[in-house]
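I am writing to request your help with a piece of structural work I have in hand. I am sending you one protein, given as its amino acid sequence and as whole-number tokens for its backbone shapes. Kindly check, if you would, that the fold set down in the tokens agrees with what the sequence suggests. You will find the record immediately after this paragraph:
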Amino acid sequence: MSTSDHDTADAVAAVPASFAVSVPDVPDAELEAEELDPGQIVSGHPVVTGKVLWESPDGTQVRGIWQITPGVVTDVEANELFVVVSGRATIEVEGGATLEVGPGSACVLREGDRTTWTVHETLRKAYQISS
């Protein structure tokens, strides 16, 4: 096997098998606390938790579950596609649209978007971030 064939075989081996997860059914206890910079909190006492389900070896792709309790926070976004599985929020994109999201909403945020999230009901989403 040549070096390039070996590299290709290693790359294929690094890709996980296909998988399915019932995102609404993952217990809160399985989600890990995530640090929320106090400077991001506009109002309330939001708590962020999540679980990475898969990450590429080079860190450029991440898939997981993310949850936030009610409150208002600001963020600078990554290149992300997500689907809301429960809860409701209003996401204001600075200089852009105001997005009303709830169960079944699919949303794309661009890297660098400055957002304000008003979380009305604890929001849980399944996401993929690409960098």
